[in-house]
Amino acid sequence: MKIAETLKKIGSVGHRKVSIPKWRNLVTDFVDEGRRKNIIHIVFDADIDAFMKLKAQARKDASACPSVTTYVSCCFAQAIGEQPEIQTYRGGFGRKLVIFDDVDVVFTVEKTIEGQEMPWTHTIRACNEKSPIEVNDILKRVKSEPVEGTQRWRFVSWVMRQPRFIRRLLWVLPRHNPFFMKYVVGTVAVTSVGMFSEGNLALVPISPLTLTLAIGAIGKKPVHEDGTWVKREDITLTLCADHDVVDGAPLARFAEAFKAKLADPVGVLSRGDA
């Protein structure tokens, strides 16, 4: 009796119960697939002060300029294009390595679909060959266009309502076939939480792709420059890589090349404009 009374008392505290959205099944499946990999992480700050100054000037001039997320993502894609080995996949049930030339970046955006806020993915093919303005326009369109009624939404809606064992079976082919993974998802992923916070904020995601970039928040760091201390804007980034195909030293070298691109926006912003 005492146990029953205690349980009744515990359950009587103020609370509310809501149904788990079906789309959370897709997130769970994605994370479960990522947990199958041996992931290594690098968290670092990168200087984007030069880009932020260009962006501020573009705002004054009312000229086009990509968002921070777009700029960082394009730097990421271009750096991979110069070091494609960093997006290597194991194929043939682990007996072969597949290195793709194109960098197909899958972005996650938040959309309102059928009255619910949910993550929605969109893959930009050969992102390393596109200009940041072009990528920015694509992402704006993805965020604004409705997906209800599309063939993709009908398929996604069907998948998220299936039992777990059926949803897990759908991951078997992309898990063992890199070409199918590239076709249905992409070669690398980008996720961003920086717009929701300020200062040093890092995200460490779980992803089934070989390489994933998590974009954190922007902060200001004092730097000694020309004999005086100045504040420069930097951004916190996290690289997650599959340790089965990417080692720590190549990942660190890639991070340095990535940082160099972020610090010098002129070449990045001119890509694809010719």
Structure overview:
This protein is of the alpha/beta class and 274 residues long. It has a single domain (19-269), classed as Chloramphenicol acetyltransferase-like domain (Chloramphenicol Acetyltransferase, 2-Layer Sandwich). It has eleven helices and eight strands. The longest helix has 16 residues, at 248-263. The model has no long low-confidence stretch (mean pLDDT 90).
Structure classification: alpha/beta
Annotation, overall tally of beta strands: 8
Low-confidence stretches: none
Q: Determine the N-to-C terminus distance.
A: 79 Å
Which strands sit side by side, in order, in the main sheet?
1-8-7-6-4-5
Give the helix proportion (percent range).
25-40%
Q: Compute the CA-based radius of gyration.
A: 21 Å
Our estimate of the beta-strand percent is 25-35%
The CATH H-level homologous superfamily: Chloramphenicol acetyltransferase-like domain
Q: Which shape, going by the Cα principal axes?
A: globular
Number of helices: 11
Q: What CATH architecture label applies? A: 2-Layer Sandwich
- CATH C-level class is Alpha Beta
Biggest pleated sheet: 6 strands, mixed
Q: What letter string, H or E per element, gives the SSE order?
A: HHEHHEEEEHHHHHEEEHH
The CATH topology name reads Chloramphenicol Acetyltransferase
Count of all domains: 1
Mean pLDDT: 90
